[in-house]
Design goal:
The protein has 480 residues and is of the alpha/beta class. The radius of gyration is 26 Å and the shape is globular. The chain contains 12 helices and 20 strands. The protein starts with a helix and ends in a 6-residue tail after the last helix. It has 3 domains: 25-84 and 310-475, DD-peptidase/beta-lactamase superfamily (Beta-lactamase, 3-Layer(aba) Sandwich), CATH 3.40.710; 89-159 and 264-307, 3-Layer(bba) Sandwich (D-tyrosyl-trna(Tyr) Deacylase, Chain: A); 185-260, no CATH class.
């Protein structure tokens, strides 16, 4: 028994010594040899910020599709251009004059300046009951009747078109909304389903929120034994027609999916107009939308401000919110005076980042035509951590493994928990990460890892990356 005990001790010591001697090269060799990556395009680049050592450098100059890791660009650049305390505004104004009897002989305006999150449920405490507050502001200046129109002025960014390279499958879903100068409630609506009790059984739509969108929905969704949402909303023949296809988990009394509100500025105008009428304010005219600059003298009587930009960038990165990223891109373009693509390229170049191979089709990463090299993104993240005037603020917006955002279920109970701060990205056959992780010595590793066209499903690829993060967190460079 004594000999067996001694032998077991030696085995444990040897295993411990082996685990302690694992190198970054070992991790890389193990990663690239995965059968799931046999036909994939993968790129990894990482540097130790404490020692300056390059710890991963594999296909680091290959341009790859980054998915939502691309959101690092608009969120960080917006912070640098506007500062973390910046707020976006929306104004209420009127033209003409208010008569002694309370009649506005003119038009009432909602003037949008691109607040990404006006009336958002993400900031309920900030906005409160926005529309009721606006109605009270109208009453407070003595308006009792409007002899004119309610006009939603969305001319600040003109009409925003859907990017040409977004795919049809995405466009009507909540993540396929390009935004407006006048967004409202995140431009979202919810479709609630009751699913069946067997595989491939039909589903039933129980309600739509909000319930005044006048959508005509053709429900072709079936129940499934899978546990996740595999449904997609498509545009139909008419403007308000939608078709929903795919599957939802079976045996659910209430399962909701999200769609993109068509023409959010029109919906906002209608809600405001109807609430004014309910409050007893008569309106002779109609709801109208202005995308061209309004040539009319107007008096602003109320200004609503968004939360601070830092909070918006935090939500953008933690929840991977496409709408906010897209809206930030329009503000960046307007600030620099160039289209977003050119604005980003010039900003990165001014900070010493090589932009060769960086292709920009949108800000949120939804387009499969976006591409960036792992080295480019890592060098930008390195700049953000070491030289940006808002390095701490940007770092605070990133999801944390096992704690927050899209990484809240990652690395739980491992050494990587709370030591990995990163933006994740995923689409069909795309999985990517960019951020920072502490190794066992407490050294900070900045990195960008991207995989395209792997053979496993997205969850399988996530597990492969998660294992890599755990092993990085366990490495001690002092052992070799």
């Amino acid at each position: 028994m004594k000999k067996i005990g001694i032998l077991l001790l030696f085995v444990l010591i040897a295993a411990f010594a082996y685990s302690q001697s694992t190198t970054y090269d070992d991790l890389l060799d193990n990663f690239v040899s995965k059968t799931e990556l046999k036909n994939a395009s993968i790129g990894l680049y990482a540097e130790n910020l404490n020692t300056g050592k390059i710890v991963f450098n594999y296909n680091s100059n290959v341009s790859l599709v980054p998915a939502s890791v691309f959101k690092i660009l608009p969120t960080s650049i917006a912070l640098e251009l506007f500062g973390p305390e910046h707020k976006f505004k929306t104004e209420l104004a009127y033209s003409g004059s208010i008569a002694s009897d309370g009649t506005l002989n003119g038009n009432l305006y909602i003037i949008g300046y691109g607040d990404p999150c006006l009336g958002s449920s993400n900031y309920t405490n900030h906005y409160g009951d926005l529309i009721s507050d606006w109605v009270n502001k109208v009453k407070s200046i003595g308006i009792k009747k409007i002899n004119g129109d309610i006009i939603a002025d969305a001319s600040y960014f003109d009409r925003i078109n859907i990017p040409d390279t977004w795919i049809w499958e995405d466009l009507a879903n909540y993540y396929g909304n390009p935004g407006s100068s006048l967004n409202y409630m995140d431009n979202l609506y919810y479709v609630h389903f009751q699913t069946g009790n067997s595989d491939r059984s039909p589903t039933k739509i129980t309600k739509i929120e909000p319930n005044d969108l006048n959508l005509n929905i053709d429900n072709k969704v079936l129940s499934s034994s899978t546990t996740w949402d595999e449904s997609f909303i498509f545009f139909g023949d008419g403007k308000n027609d939608r078709i929903i296809r795919g599957t939802l988990p079976w045996k659910k009394g209430d399962f909701s999916i999200k769609g993109s509100i068509p023409d959010p500025e029109t919906y906002l105008c209608n809600v405001f107009s109807n609430t004014l009428k309910t409050a007893g304010i008569l309106i002779s005219g109609d709801c109208k939308i202005a995308f061209d600059v309004v040539d009319e003298n107007r008096k602003v009587f109320h200004t609503a401000y968004s939360p601070e930009l830092l909070k918006i960038t935090e939500t953008t990165n933690l929840k991977s919110f496409n709408l906010y990223a897209e809206m930030l891109s329009f503000h960046i373009a307007k600030k620099i005076g160039k289209p977003y693509k050119e604005a980003v390229l010039s900003h990165l170049y001014s900070k010493g980042i090589d932009t060769d191979g960086l292709n920009i089709e949108d800000a949120c990463g939804l387009s499969h035509f976006n591409s960036i090299t792992p080295k480019q993104m890592t060098q930008w993240l390195k700049y953000l951590r070491e030289k940006s005037p808002y390095k701490d603020e940007f770092f605070s917006t990133l999801p944390v493994a096992g704690t927050s955002g899209t990484l809240s279920r990652y690395c739980i109970g491992t050494k990587a928990q709370k030591r990995l701060h990163a933006k994740s990205g995923s689409m069909t056959r795309v999985r990517a990460y960019g951020g920072y992780i502490l190794n066992s010595d407490g050294d900070e590793i900045v990195f960008c890892f991207i995989a395209n066209n792997y053979s496993c499903n997205n969850y399988g690829m996530r597990q492969i990356f998660e294992s890599l993060f755990i092993k990085i967190a366990e490495i001690s460079e002092k052992q070799y």
